[in-house]
Amino acid sequence: MRRHYATIKDIAHALNISVSTVSRALRDTYDVSADTRKLVLEMAAKLNYKPNFNATGLVKNSTHNLAVILPGITNYYFSTVFTGIQEIAYSHNYNIILYVTNDDAARELNIIRNLSFSSLDGLLVSVSSQADSCDHFQEIIDDGIPVVFFDRVAAGIRTSKVMQDDYNGAFEATTHLIANGYKKIAHIAGPEGLTFTTSRLNGYLDALRKHGMPIRKKWIIHSGFTQECGENDLEKLWKLNDKPDAVFAVNDRKAVGAIVTLKKKNIAVGKEVGVIGFTNDPMSAIISPSLSTIAEPAFEIGKKSCQLLLNHIKKKNFIPEEIILPGKLIIRESSIRS
């Protein structure tokens, strides 16, 4: 049997107040007292009132639906970001429609081309690592649909963005390796063209320059973000005549790949070759030796990016904001020589 939900009229009748007063109380407008709003909310809960977003959307041009576009969802980082997005969205009675690109630029474009924007209030996006153009997002913004980027952002598009402090995190990670006696530090980087790949690369390079450490182009390898990519990158480094004695990886999965390959070569991780990652994935604490890393504020990034999107939705001329959240150095066994 279909469940019955109360209407605004039912609440008004029960409290003997006008429908307009109930409506304003539910919307928390300035002209309704706190006591009245409290009574309305209590009665709404008692009568099992649910807002009809389909009906209000016709009037307000609002659907209470948000789209989230992610490169992946099984990844610890993105699943944690998504949890933060959910917390804010659900607390404001917004629904979430999730799309996963699997890091495929063609898939990302196909998703955008087939979205029904009449049923969406806005988009939260972390771009594909293969994307070499973000014009499709600019078209959406030009059409009046709010878009907020997080983590992997489109640098050339003027809209709000939420990121971790990639440059300083990389600078701190590389400086930590130097402080522990490593002198020939390689970087297994992410795909070229991504903003945070460039930021982490620049942090690494500037730390080397500041401490007078050698920079070798052959010690910088760009590839994907998987453990397998890390394994392959390490193999390439070990084919060089001048091998590094430490590796800074763009993320923890690649760092784990480097550790796995070093162990296969019977090279003592930490004592002989230092390794540090970026993310603080749970695997970093359980792999042996445990992985030093830069912890990213993934949950907070999700919350802040969703709140920014809601701000854009509520105020169409909202001035874009760029929020950069700091990471934290986590020191474990993989970067300690003694």
TrEMBL record:
Domain of life: Bacteria
Keywords: DNA-binding, Transcription, Transcription regulation
SMART domains xref list: HTH_LACI (SM00354)
Alphabetical list of PROSITE patterns matching this protein: HTH_LACI_2
Lineage: Bacteria, Pseudomonadati, Bacteroidota, Chitinophagia, Chitinophagales
MF GO annotations: DNA-binding transcription factor activity; transcription cis-regulatory region binding
Coiled-coil residues: none
Protein name in the entry: Transcriptional regulator, LacI family
Species in which this protein is naturally found: Chitinophaga ginsengisegetis
A Pfam family: LacI
PANTHER family referenced in this protein's UniProt entry, alphabetically: HTH-TYPE TRANSCRIPTIONAL REGULATOR GALS, LACI-RELATED TRANSCRIPTIONAL REPRESSOR
Domain HTH lacI-type: 6-60
